[in-house]
Specification:
- There is one protein chain.
- The chain has 20 helices and six strands.
- It has helices at residues 2-11, 25-42, 49-52, 56-73, 85-94, 101-106, 116-129, 133-157, 162-174, 179-182, 188-203, 208-219, 228-238, 247-264, 283-299, 310-327, 336-347, 369-379, 386-427, 449-456; strands at 14-16, 19-21, 271-272, 275-276, 438-439, 442-443.
- The strands form three sheets. It has a two-stranded antiparallel sheet. A two-stranded antiparallel ribbon has the order 3-4. The protein has a two-stranded antiparallel sheet with strand order 5-6.
- Strand 5 and strand 6 form a beta hairpin.
- Helix 4 packs antiparallel against helix 8.
- It is globular.
């Protein structure tokens, strides 16, 4: 599979060894799954004591480095226009007032979701950002940078060495599936849920009350955070703590879910033919998502609607070789199994929505699960010499950084097309029916067309 995928990068759409390879999503997925199995096979497991006795100043230095990288990686996004659901959310946020505070927590969301903390965050941003795109993107980039630093600290807590923790945090900072969560204002819910989930995990050992105070806003930001009690149980088992310490979190999540059920009169969420989409999950689609497309998106997060440039192609070949070399190493001590288990647990809430599209549509669903993928891959750096570790880290991060910018180009093009379309309709130069839905995997004007035209009809505020 490594040969097939490498040949596809170097030769373009072709037939390799009997495989017809156009968009190589399946070969990439099989390769990623095989690499994961081998990394787990060689992992020695628990190495917690190193993190307990680590130097706090050094940890924060690593975290600060990762934060700067995250801001730099997504800096092109500051110039992007709004897209699709953004227009609806921004209109709601700019019209919000204090009289809506109580109903926000006592009424079900009209979209089938209950995310009051996320809407509060949007209202707060609207109070000073108005309808100026770059002002809306600043808190999104900051939240992503904060999450990247927390991933670094989480990796250290799990016992990953400094180089591996740096790779874990930096990889999260530049991962190619993240534009949909970071650049799209509608991804605010995913980022907030991840911020508070990571805060809860990091505070779990130090302060139960502090962890609970992080758990609640996570649950009220997005449904993906309902896996927090399971993740805390995983952490407790890994740290050889009594699982009963997680009971308050199970109780809080149960109460929050029961309240949500009361508001909606059921599970809520997306529906198909009047039935919750969650119950329409098929066995074949689930197996394909878990064993193929998940690993495609995580290991090779490329928007294949546009062919990658030659720099990215060469980096991809070097990256494949590096991953294969990592799998051939002797046994190493690293918590790869914890990362793998955390990844599978984090995927559960979004599994019925995830299809691993070649254009990375729906990439925001992987925002929280990618935390654990980055920890797993970072832990595979354990036992490498300084020189070998630096080379491996440089190749891995160079590929993912370049892949991210390849994907960001699609978001920039889509946002510019949306801006031109809405301004054209507002001036009467374009008929209202001529508006794009999805543009190369990016949600152009799939929703929010009327709000987009309305915004284009008035000056920025």
């Amino acid at each position: 599979m490594g040969t097939v995928v490498a040949a596809r990068f170097l030769m373009g759409p072709t037939v390799v060894g009997g495989f017809s390879v156009t968009t190589p999503a399946n070969p990439e997925g099989f390769l990623g799954l095989g690499i994961t199995i081998l990394l787990l096979w060689h992992s020695g497991g628990r190495v917690l004591t190193r993190a307990i006795h680590s130097d706090g100043r050094a940890e924060w230095a690593l975290a600060a480095t990762v934060a700067v990288l995250a801001m730099a990686a997504f800096s092109p996004g500051l110039t992007f226009y709004f897209l699709s659901d953004d227009f609806i959310l921004i209109k709601m946020a700019t019209q919000w007032d204090s009289a809506r505070l109580v109903p926000l927590f006592t009424s079900p969301g009209g979209d089938g979701f209950f995310r009051p903390f996320g809407y509060l965050s949007l209202a707060f941003t609207a109070s000073w950002a108005g309808s100026t795109p770059w002002l809306w993107h600043i808190p999104a980039l900051a939240a992503n940078a904060l999450n990247a630093t927390l991933v670094t600290l989480l990796a250290r807590r799990l016992g990953v060495g400094r180089l591996g923790a740096l790779v874990a945090g930096a990889l999260f900072a530049v991962h190619g599936t993240h534009p949909e969560a970071v650049v799209w204002i509608a991804g605010r819910f995913d980022m907030l849920a991840t911020v508070f989930s990571l805060g809860c995990l990091l505070l779990f050992r130090r302060s139960t009350w502090g962890a609970l105070l992080c758990c609640l806003p996570a649950l009220l930001s997005k449904e993906s955070a309902y896996v927090l009690p399971a993740l805390l149980t995983l952490l407790a088992v890994y740290e050889r703590r009594a699982p009963r310490e997680t009971l308050p979190f199970w109780g809080l999540a149960t109460a929050a879910f029961a309240y949500r059920w009361f508001l909606f009169g059921g599970i809520g969420g997306y529906t198909i033919a009047g039935r919750p989409q969650f119950f329409a999950l098929g066995l074949a689609s689930t197996l394909k998502a878990l064993f193929v497309r998940l690993w495609t998106s995580l290991y090779f997060p490329l928007n294949w609607s546009v062919e990658p440039g030659w720099v990215l192609m060469l980096l991809a070949v070097a990256y494949i070789g590096t991953l294969l070399w990592l799998t051939s190493r002797p046994r190493y001590n690293g918590p790869a199994w914890v990362g793998f288990a955390g990844l599978l647990i984090s995927m559960l809430p979004a599994l019925h929505l995830f299809n691993g599209a070649p254009d990375l549509a729906g990439g925001r669903l992987l925002y929280l699960p990618s935390v654990w993928f980055c920890v797993m891959l970072g832990s595979s750096m354990e036992g490498l010499g300084k020189r070998a570790g630096m080379i491996v880290a440089a190749i891995v991060l160079a590929f993912h950084f370049t892949a991210l910018w390849h994907n960001l180009d699609r978001w920039e093009n889509a946002s510019e097309r949306v801006r031109i379309t809405c301004e054209g309709v507002a001036r009467g130069a374009i008929v209202a029916e001529e508006h794009p839905g999805y543009i190369q995997g990016v949600p152009g004007l799939a929703n929010g067309f009327a709000e987009c035209v309305e915004l284009a009809s008035r000056p920025l505020q």
